[in-house]
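**Fold tokens**
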Amino acid sequence: MPPFLRAEAELFFGALRFFTRLPAPAWVGHSADKLNRASRYFPAVGLIVGAIGALVWYIAHLFWPHHVAVLLALAATIWTTGAFHEDGLTDMADGFGGGLEKARILEIMKDSRIGAFGMIAFVFALLGRFLALVSLPASLVAPALVAGHAVSRFFAVALLRFMDYVREDALAKAKPVATRIGGRDLCVAGLTALAPGFFLPPARFLCALLLAAVAVSWLARLYRRRLGGYTGDCLGAAQQAAEVAFYLGVLAHLPRGA
């Protein structure tokens, strides 16, 4: 394999190994610099996770009702990621719900236990995804799953470009997968996220992008106001919010001529 392709493959598999349970080649290295450079492939990891969910939905839909197939597809995506982003959502919700000052928020987010705010956020996120997908026509479920996982990861990774990582090493449970992303890498991530949108009706896809952008923009303002930046848990929460918002956008009943 040419050195350039090997280097890019190492970045991709590094991102895949960090975000999922899927195996990666033994020769894939690990370093802070590589994790930052691998951020361009976060939406590509989302494509794989969404494709696994779509495949499970398609097979399950052959044997069981629509709502059962959707539930199994969601379970497959959560298993594939090891509930990585859901964990970030619960920690963020507990921190922002139970803390007023920055230090207290970070302290609560460090705690591995799930509190009331975290559990409520998790239930609403899971229920929101389920209800939105089960309400879609069967022909749109698979493309919505693939696009939703890719787009949501792009909007989460965009925070790396426009916000600062809150460096509280004494309180950090773990550093995020990356703390910065270059403009060129952000463009690569964006093009990857947009690719599956061609399998959705254009108006629905644009509406879904808009809602996902609004959701993450609102969270970004919250992060900046309460923390002055983001943490790894904040990125996980942004992905979850963007995914739910994306499915709601695909589901939205648009006026005629929109």
About this structure: The two ends are 48 Å apart (CA to CA). Residues 60 and 69 are 5 Å apart (CA to CA). The chain has eleven helices and no strands.
